[in-house]
Amino acid sequence: MEREFIPSGEALHTCNGHLLQRLAQAGTAWLEQNYESVNALNVFPVPDGDTGTNMLLTMRSACKEIAGLNDPHIGHVAQQLYNGALMGARGNSGVILSQLWRGFARAVEKDAAIDSEGLVRGLQEGVRLAYQAVQTPVEGTMLTVAREGAEEAALAAQHTHDLIAILDRVVARCYQSVERTPQLLDVLAEAGVVDAGGMGLTYLLEGMLRYLRGEPLEVAAAAEVGALQSALTPEDEQGYGYDVQYLIKGQGLDVDRIRADIEAMGWSTLVVGDSNLIKVHVHVHNPGEVIGYGASQGVLHDVVIENMDAQYERFVQERGGPHMPEREPIAPPPIAEGTIAAVTVAPGEGLRRIFYSLGAGRVISGGQTMNPSTGDIVEAINSLPTDKVIILPNNKNILMAAEQAAQQVNGKQVRVVPTQTIPQGISALLALDPHGDLDAVAKAMQEMSATVQTGEVTRSTRDAKINGLKVKKGQVIGLHNDRLCAVGDDLNSVVVELLKKMNVDDLELITLYYGADITPQEARTLAEHLMELYPNHEIELREGGQAHYYYIISAE
Amino acid sequence: MAKVRIVTDSTATFEDPLLVHDYNITVVPLNIHFGDRVLRDGVDIDAEEMFHRLRRSPTPPRVSAPGVGAFAEVFQHLSRTTDQICVLLHSQHFTETYANALAARNAFMGRCEIAVIDSRTTSAALGYLVEAVAEAASMGASLDEVVHLARAVIPRLYSVFYVDTLDYIQQADLIGETQAILGTMLQIKPLLTIEDGLLITMEKARTHAQAIDKMIEFVAEFTDIERLCILQGTLRITDRTRMLQDRLALEFARLQSPLLLYTPLLATRIGPDGLGMAILEGTGRDD
């Protein structure tokens, strides 16, 4: 086996599969240190699928795919990284990230190792495919940052063949590019933030650079590593296991041997350091084994063990709403072979029940605050005993994952009806004719989804000034078709104000789906009030059970 | 040779109430059960009275087929003046009417030629069929010819309804594929159609406006409409009737759309507040 890369301050002229593996892990580790600051770069002050979390989970899935891989061929490792990133892709940022890996993997497919020319080629092909994956690419986003980073790599490679020097310039350029995103995209400027996806990508690349320079990959105490640490989908029956981190102090420590040993015990391994101090970070099912091993090598410091199953439960509780996956609320309707079935996404038990009652074949848990991955959607499609499927993502940020999923499924015809809200999804589902022609049905569903107005009422996650409205963190806000249009301190007043802005006068039916934070009694009081305000309208009240959003409202 | 005599059942509805008299059509009444009381549809109780009671009754009435005897009596009576009878009945999926008529016919084998035809529909669509066949018979068409005509007209008959509430459909047992909407947790206004004699869900709407849009879309798919009528549980022009009439007038300027009551058979299935249309599709010829 060739010698492993050890940060030495010297130039680096080639990168093989082993090194790419380390780089991906290091980039992910650095993203993990910074994902919360990425999450904070939210354009709208609403609880939604956090970009940092989505990118981190996407990279976790990529790293899981290469865990334990011992392949020096960079083309092979890159392909595995892409596979993992693709299936784990969550949110639009995750899907774009997976496409960057896809292009990189395609460009270096036949290479055992790459030099500066290979690096430039890989970055450029990644950018090309990422732009392709987005229907209408917008500048001032992650795409811009990726493109400018790749351009910088090409420029730098004209002067040097040192991969570290090139990556250094790429990262610096990405930072500049991120800074510039508000100039390119008005919504960013108005919200006073830079693009979150671009920032996440920059952290990923910076993590790789830090690894190559031998710089530490932790900024905070390990204990502060975010609560979302382990929001990975469980991929085996043993669950998520434990996240174990410690330092080994000793003399004459053999980093390579210790890394190999640790890798044999778990996954998502990161072992870095020198002969006196080694940092170990690994996910395992049996923390005792890896702690015992570390203690046998030297003196342990800063030992942190986190139960990732418990964290995941907490994550689901906090973000996905109160649902219990083991106890399926109602049996999904039987789907006959050859008929058209719908796969959809909904947060909250109540909404999932409603979707099932309207004939959805499979309702994936998730939505605004927890975006399902491409793999989750693929699995849902494959679980249906029919070969014609329509996906209703019910969320802008799930759209790209849905489109990727549609392409990944073999032997089935899959269409995406790009519903952006729960009410749109419900309306679309009404037009599902299981026996119809797939394209005609998709068209009818699309048309039906356009007949409904969506209102959402939640709490502001930060101070903001949008659409001429000043919002303070914690205030109740109302959105009409994703546009902020009502603010206040009293929930019911905001609902009333929102309905005024929604122009419901000419409509017939207002449906309120109340969230997990609202009691049935509170919801009834509001509904009765609305009946008085709108005596000619039908008011329908249903339990939605969604987290964070007090009310999801449809008007039609 | 005597003309072919036409027999139908009381679920047929006619735009022109005098048609039955003019063409000497025999109407065999279905039975309507209000608890223990049995009333003959259209004889002991008319449609308006039926709807009136349906709206007030806590348990909806039941409808049953005329017995074999009722048909036998009619055939017996008619066979004195003709040896050819054409019986046009509502869908055999709704009641035993068709089966009972067939059973009665068997007793007349050899004495009188009787054709019993399942129209695969009911209400005004059945009325259009009866009208076309009775007209041909009055002009001297043979039984073979009127049967042939009936077979040609049946595929041109369409009915579509939308209902406010699923309650009645839930209680009826002929729902077929309407099953798919029964578990629904939201208020749905299903659009129903009668296809191959079965009442099935065609589409789902949530508002009157959507439902009326879908009815208009349904009409717009025809290139040639010979007859069309609006069917309701009341002869009062409601907001919804006006909405439908206005849309029809706007989009199909030359189309007449008279308002008719649907019959107790449908009322027990879709309730008193359905809104529907029956259509006789044109042949595409100028005749």
How would you describe this protein?
The complex is a heterodimer of chains A (556) and B (287). Helices cover 47% and strands 17% of the residues of chain A. Chain A is of the alpha+beta class and 556 residues long. In chain A, the strands form five sheets. A six-stranded mixed beta sheet of chain A has the order 15-14-11-18-16-17. A four-stranded antiparallel beta sheet of chain A has the order 4-5-3-6. Chain B is of the alpha/beta class and 287 residues long. Chain B is built from ten helices and 13 strands. Chain B has a six-stranded mixed beta sheet, sandwiched between helices. A four-stranded parallel beta sheet of chain B has the order 2-1-6-7, sandwiched between helices. In chain B, β11 (225-232), α9 and β12 (259-261) form a beta-alpha-beta unit. The longest helix of chain B is centred in the middle third of the chain and has 16 residues, at 123-138. Mean pLDDT of chain B is 89; it is low at 174-178. Chain A binds chain B through residues 330, 333, 353-354, 357-359, 426-427, 430-431, 433-434, 451, 507-509, 511, 538, 540, 542, 556, and chain B through 180, 183-188, 203-210.
What are the key terms here?
heterodimer; A: 556 residues; alpha+beta; six-stranded mixed beta sheet; four-stranded antiparallel beta sheet; 18 strands; 17% strand; B: 287 residues; alpha/beta; four-stranded parallel beta sheet; 10 helices; 35% helix
